[in-house]
Amino acid sequence: MKKYLPIIVLASLFVACNKPAGELVGLGIKDTFVEAQPYSMVFIKRGSFMMGANDQSALGGINDKSINVSVDAFWMDETEITNDKYKQFVYWVRDSIILRTLVINGREEFAVKSKNETTESDPQFVRLNWKAKIPTVSKDEEINEILNSLYYQDNNALGKKQIDPGKLQYKYEWINYDQAALPENKYDVNTGAYPPNAKARVDTSYVDNGVIVNRTIERRLRSRKDLISTRIVNVYPDTIMWLRDFQYSYNDPKMKMYFSHPGFSQYPVVGVTWEQAQAFCQWRTQLFNSANAIGGQDYRLPTEAEWEYAARGGRRMALYPWGGNYVRDSKGCFLANFKPMRGSYTDDEGATTMKVAMFPPNDFGLFDMAGNVAEWTSSAYNASSSTLISDMNPTFQYNAKNSDPDVLKRKVIKGGSWKDIAYYLQCGVKTYEYQNESRPYIGFRCVRSYNGE
């Protein structure tokens, strides 16, 4: 039998490759590609659940009615984004500014030129050579001069230089599909054009004397590029918010050290606005796609439904992420970092924020889906959104423009935090914050849609 095996294999290959000429056979692309698990992410299988609050509102308000919805599979960070991970973003922005400045100054070894590019290419837009090692400050005076422009002398920190938050700016773009979906902007597939009167409201950003200027403009819609909005954000977290939000409390140590000190590296990053979190997701997508031949789905903030479904851990009516109806286990130990009683912040072993993953995960393997810090979602806030949303991958989405009133810039936050009572730790409870505000009790984690069944 063994001597006939090569003949059988060759015959099978011949039959497989002998496709009928002139017939519809497709491109022959195999569907056996298996998406690798993203680092430090957990796979959340698709399913359905009862979305909405399980309990009466603590403030006597009218809750959304609970509705049965279905959610597609996705990947989710097993913990909130930590200071250490967010620093990678901050330092990437810092290094990109250094590299770009060097290229502008004529240092061509820090630029990547394709075959179509010449030495006359605009240095503002050429690709940066990240493989080129940035010289140390002591060996390169030009680098030293650039770094001096990004740092300032902090006499209150033993004379150490501190990075200037206002200098670390990141630019990103997105397509305003909400503008394309307007009835008056409907694309005509028969003519291959948008209506003559089609217009799109988009955001644009630019820097004027070091100050970021955000504007909303209305442009004629002629092609998809007219739907692109631009945003420039300062990526460094807001450290003053510890003092601003708790004025009659001694929070100076947190203000000075929470993000910069290595002792807080595994604590959740806070003081990050929704817009900064969006910028982080854009950068993370860029980082992944630049290192992989086959790009993946974009990293993004979870929708309210995705977050709640993940928090419930596969339990349709779970009140808390751990599945029970109480905030203590059978031994009387608290199961999350929150405010157990008036003034008693430390009864759960934490005063303010704690290191991530200090409490057991839920059934999906996700840590801190209740307490520690509340988390941004991509969904816009509406107290009665359950009457508006679909029952398949639901979300109430509104892409607020710079010129929109503040009431349209409210984003859903979930999970409760170290300063909240147990009510806000419930999976179905939601509240909101404005997308351009930062708080010492709000962080975030990313998700990525799954390619496949």
Overall description:
- This protein is α+β, with helices and mostly antiparallel strands and 453 residues long.
- The protein has two domains: 38-82 and 237-453, paralog of FGE (formylglycine-generating enzyme) (Alpha-Beta Complex); 170-234, no CATH class.
- The chain has helices at 5-17, 83-104, 141-150, 177-180, 241-245, 252-257, 274-291, 304-312, and strands at residues 41-44, 47-51, 67-71, 74-77, 111-112, 127-128, 151-154, 160-163, 169-175, 199-208, 211-220, 228-234, 299-300, 374-380, 410-414, 430-434, 442-443, 447-449.
- It has a four-stranded antiparallel sheet. A four-stranded mixed sheet has the order 16-15-14-17.
- A hairpin with a 2-residue loop joins strand 10 (199-208) and strand 11 (211-220).
- The protein is globular and about 65 Å long.
Report the principal-axis shape. globular
CATH class placement of the largest domain: Alpha Beta
What's the mean pLDDT score? 86
What count of structural domains?
A: 2
Q: What is the CATH topology descriptor of the largest domain?
A: paralog of FGE (formylglycine-generating enzyme)
Determine Rg (CA atoms, Å). Answer: 26 Å
Terminal-residue CA separation: 39 Å
Strand content: 15-25%
- CATH H-level superfamily of the largest domain: paralog of FGE (formylglycine-generating enzyme)
Largest pleated sheet: 4 strands, antiparallel
**Structural category:** alpha+beta
Strand order of the largest sheet: 1-4-18-13
CATH architecture assignment of the largest domain: Alpha-Beta Complex
Bin the helical content.
10-25%
Strand and helix order = HEEEEHEEHEEEHEEEHHHEHEEEEE
Number of strands: 18
Uncertain stretches: none
User: How many H/I helical runs?
Assistant: 8
